[in-house]
Design goal:
Elements: E1 2-10, H1 15-32, E2 36-43, E3 50-57, H2 60-67, H3 70-79, E4 83-92
Antiparallel strand pairs: 1-3, 1-4, 2-3
Helix pairs in contact: 1-3
């Protein structure tokens, strides 16, 4: 299993719009991508501009399918200027 842990720092004026966009992306990922097994959107209780994603995929092909999906590409393009920083960690789940 492939794990993506993503940290976003969002510009304050775009926090609510980003929250809606990333929630839509997570829902679409779970509903339309057979290889996406989990997609959690979390937000810091101390810093409302910090969002964390925990995504679980069956394999690297499923990760690539996600990164090339219409909903991801649309969300990524729409929110690009809202993001102050983004850190992606790629992990492999151990049994």
């Amino acid at each position: 299993m492939q794990v993506l842990v993503v940290e976003f720092r969002i510009k304050s004026e775009h926090i609510d719009a980003f929250a809606a966009a990333i929630a839509h992306n997570a829902k679409a990922s779970l509903e339309t991508e057979p290889g996406c097994k989990q997609f959690d959107v979390c937000r810091s209780s101390d810093e409302p501009q910090l969002f964390y994603l925990y995504e679980l995929y069956v394999d690297e092909a499923a990760v690539q399918a996600h990164l090339n999906s219409p909903h991801f590409l649309a969300m990524n393009a729409a929110t690009a200027t809202w993001v102050e920083s983004k850190l992606v960690r790629r992990l492999i789940m151990q049994a």
